[in-house]
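Hey team,

Filing this mostly as a record. A colleague (T.K.) asked me to run one chain through the structure pipeline before their review meeting, and I want the input and output archived in the tracker in case anyone asks later how it was produced. No errors, nothing strange. Just documentation.

Input sequence:
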Amino acid sequence: MQKTKTLFVTSFWPYPINDGGRDVAVAILEAVKKHSNVDIVAFIQEKSFNVNKASLDKYTDSQVFLIKWKRVPKLMWLKVWLKGKSYFFFRDYNKDYLKTLEKLISQTKYDHILLDRIIALLYVDDIFKLFQKYHNKKPKITYFSHNVESNLVKAYWTSERNPIMLIYKLPVLPEILLSSRFEINTMKKINNYSISYFDMQFFKDHGVKNIKVFPPAFFKGQKPYATTLKQEKQFKLYISMLANFKWYQNVQGLTWFLKKIWPKVLKHVPDAKLRLGGKAFHPRLLKLINKTPNIELLGYIKTEDKDTFHSQDALTLAPVLIGSGLKIKVLQAFRQAVPLVVTTKALEGFASQVYNIVPHSDDPDKFADYVIELLKNPEKRLKLRKEMYKYNKDHFDIQNMNKFIKELLNGKKTKAVKRK
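Output structure:
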């Protein structure tokens, strides 16, 4: 069977893989490459270009166009608003990106156009016009949504408690309306897949009918670091987190943990150590970390080292308080079969069986109790490792993504992913 031709339009070139969004993008792109001839358009930050050249070798059979990323200056926000558009989104609209799309579409009648993340969604109307101009037909466009992006804009405002900062953030209020209107209305025009059942339901409730859930299968599973009680008992009392600690969601979650949970953990397990991996920390968070005991900053973790990042850890955490989509840090923990304690927000969108496996609570005392219990009880840690390993193998393995993409590109009706 002759391979189809696909145009993959993504926000940023997903290498190096240094955040959850890029993990998802790479999993989708790798699966597409197996079943279709694919051309790729992506933004890239100039400082990353030399680092990323090696990743191009993975796509020697594809045309890859990397467009220098530059945002509309902040002083232009009023001009964007007067056009009835969201500045938070359209600050990333780029004429060079559009010219590249036109060049490719004028040369090739693509069977599929796959859009990855919100920036790619900015070009939907342009793609419709270009297909009509060059091929006199409508394109088959599919959007992979990682979050309800407009809800993140809303959370930026509603989670603020400082009155002075609320005044500073007043321009966010019209953004809540403009970003939501753009996201919902654009998705109504095309086919969509959401990473989360809860996100899918949100979009459906707001009139987006043509949406399903795609499988949360982005990684190849690993064997547990401990398979016997003897091995489990050898772990030090390390708790680790790997994240971008400048990102608002992570700053808020870790601040909550350090202020309300970590003191109780240290009272009961004084030898416990919290290890944080990441190259960037918000100044306010870093100030809190520097005056909090038993914390080790590990700095930037290379992509090739992420697969073994948790190899010394008794457990990891996902203290997520806001956001949408599936939390990649949860999937990474399942992938490496590392015991995990989370808030309920971190598990949104997962199947009920995941809730049954993973200890979770939004109450600080209960969250701390789970952490303390796992640190003190290697038998329970080992049991949790085994349950996570089995569930990952059955539900989260990358083969599920390959099967899904194959069916999508071959025009077969993809099965709805059950999460309840």
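Quick notes for T.K.: The chain has two domains: 4-218+398-409, 229-396. The first strand starts at residue 4 and ends at 12.
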